[in-house]
């Protein structure tokens, strides 16, 4: 199924709603103000997503928090960022110095919580606005290359909803990617639900 400009705008709005809610929760966790922005959303094949992300990250090891979701739409959602940015983000949120011996001990737990908040914010907004029930598994933390994170578990027919998230914390900008992965049938169901929402209300809104 091809995605129209209106459908892509609706997807971006759904993600923006979810990320906005996630940012509010993250602000409650720390003293610093956290702003999350999604400047760009793309719908790609698994191979196209690998090419885009691979050109940016090459063979770098990436930090990833992934969880599976089932229901009206099913697939995998993940928050992915370079490990250096991940370590910096954790250091800011926990108060640990970058490179501290204690940092690795808290990194997995902190990043898993951040990923859980952001992914659940996005998937929650999709489910709530489109009035569809979605169930989630517990988040899993991984460090691996983009090839192993993306292509090894998803076929070439998978549709990848790729949203690049920009973190801004005390004037420090960290880049990461929110990757939502849908099997083709589930992606078509998502687009159909969006079309129904637009047909009734004329737009996507919270």
Can you describe this structure in just a few lines?
This protein is α+β, with helices and mostly antiparallel strands and 206 residues long.
Write up what this structure looks like:
It is built from 6 helices and 7 strands, in the order αβαββααββαββα. It has a single domain (5-201), classed as Chemotaxis protein chec (3-Layer(aba) Sandwich). The longest helix is centred in the middle third of the chain and has 27 residues, at 103-129. Strands 1, 2, 3, 4, 5, 6 and 7 form a 7-stranded antiparallel β-sheet that branches. Helix 1 (5-29) packs across helix 4 and helix 3 (83-94) crosses helix 4. The chain is of the alpha+beta class and 206 residues long.
Which terms would index this structure?
Chemotaxis protein chec; globular; 6 helices; single chain; 206 residues; alpha+beta; 7-stranded antiparallel β-sheet; 49% helix
Can you lay out the helices and strands and say which pair or pack?
Blueprint: H1 5-29, E1 34-45, H2 46-57, E2 62-71, E3 75-82, H3 83-94, H4 103-129, E4 134-136, E5 140-144, H5 146-151, E6 159-169, E7 172-182, H6 184-201
Antiparallel strand pairs: 1-6, 2-3, 2-4, 2-5, 3-7, 6-7
Percent in helix: 40-55%
Rg over alpha carbons: 17 Å
User: The CATH topology is what?
Assistant: Chemotaxis protein chec
Overall mean pLDDT: 81
The fraction of residues in strands falls at 25-35%
- Judging from the principal axes of the Cα atoms, what is the shape? globular
The helix-and-strand class reads alpha+beta
Treating each run of at least 4 consecutive H or I residues as one helix, how many helices? 6
CATH homologous superfamily assignment: CheC-like
The level-1 CATH class:
Alpha Beta
The tally of domains stands at 1
Pattern of helices and strands: HEHEEHHEEHEEH
N→C terminal distance:
25 Å
Looking at the overall shape, the CATH architecture is 3-Layer(aba) Sandwich
Biggest sheet architecture: 7 strands, antiparallel
Topology, number of strands: 7
Unreliable residue runs: none
């Amino acid at each position: 199924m091809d995605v129209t400009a209106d459908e892509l705008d609706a997807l971006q709005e759904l993600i923006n709603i979810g990320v906005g809610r996630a940012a509010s929760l993250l602000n409650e966790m720390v003293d610093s103000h956290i702003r999350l922005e999604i400047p760009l959303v793309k719908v790609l094949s698994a191979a196209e997503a690998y090419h885009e992300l691979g050109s940016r990250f090459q063979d770098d090891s990436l930090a990833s928090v992934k969880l599976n979701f089932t229901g009206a739409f099913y697939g995998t959602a993940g928050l992915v960022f370079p490990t250096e940015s991940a370590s910096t983000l954790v250091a800011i949120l926990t108060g640990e110095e970058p490179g501290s011996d204690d940092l690795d001990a808290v990194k997995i737990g902190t990043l898993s919580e951040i990923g859980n908040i952001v992914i659940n914010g996005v998937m929650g907004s999709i489910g709530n606005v489109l009035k569809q029930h979605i169930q989630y598994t517990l988040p899993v933390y991984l460090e691996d290359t983009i090839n192993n994170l993306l292509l090894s578990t998803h076929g070439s027919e998978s549709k990848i909803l790729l949203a690049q998230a920009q973190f801004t914390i005390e004037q420090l900008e960290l880049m990461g990617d929110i990757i939502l992965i849908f099997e083709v049938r589930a992606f078509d169901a998502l687009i159909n639900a969006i079309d129904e929402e637009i047909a009734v209300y004329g737009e996507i809104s919270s």
